[in-house]
Specification:
By secondary structure, this protein is of the alpha+beta class. It has one domain: Gcn5-related N-acetyltransferase (GNAT) (Aminopeptidase, 3-Layer(aba) Sandwich). The protein contains 4 helices and 7 strands; from the N terminus they run βααβββαβαββ. Strands 1-2-3-4-5-7-6 form a 7-stranded mixed sheet. A hairpin with an 8-residue loop joins β3 and β4. α1 packs across α2. The chain starts with a strand and ends with a strand.
Length: 171
């Protein structure tokens, strides 16, 4: 299946926001640690996407689109601090279950790194669930492991605590 990666406009159409909401619900339903607990309603997910995009303050949102709609996404958020104009945070790398194992996660990470470099950022940071697919991906792609924060968040079940790992990458 052909997948194109593109930048989401800061005023996305309703269909794209709905696709992003479906993607987020799919991730939470599959157990992905993406800051939400189950059950996540489509309406709540759509509201979250609208608020996040509207308040993005220079963020870059990439989406992967296949024949069925949006199959993946990743975000880049510039640091808010005036003394960190060179730094941004990578967030919400999400790949739909139908596309997992296809290399789409790697393509999205490489695309957001390229977008960050073009935007003038020289240092990227992120966090991921310890032991998860994202941690393995970032290690594979040469991100530098910084450390682990124990009991950082709960899994989508709303009960089980998990550790998070912190990474950075110099561009």
């Amino acid at each position: 299946m052909s997948v194109e990666i593109e930048r989401l406009p800061l005023s996305p159409d309703d269909a794209d926001v709905r696709d992003l909401a479906y993607l987020l619900v799919n991730a939470v339903d599959s157990g992905a640690a993406v800051s939400f607990v189950a059950p996540l309603s489509l309406e709540s997910a759509e509201h979250w996407w609208r608020d996040t995009i509207a308040g993005s303050n220079g963020a870059i949102f990439l989406i992967a689109r296949d024949a069925e709609g949006i199959s993946g996404t990743v975000q880049l958020h510039p640091a808010w601090a005036p003394n960190q104009p060179h730094r941004a945070e990578v967030a919400k790398l999400i790949v739909h279950r139908r596309s997992r194992g296809s290399g789409l996660g790697e393509r999205l990470v490489r695309a957001i790194e390229d977008a960050a470099q073009r935007a003038g950022f020289r240092l990227l940071t992120l966090d991921a669930k310890r032991g998860g697919d994202a941690e393995r991906l970032y290690r594979k792609l040469g991100w530098t492991f910084v450390g682990t924060i124990p009991r950082y968040a709960v899994d989508p079940d709303g009960v089980t605590l998990h550790d998070t790992v912190i990474f950075y990458k110099d561009l």
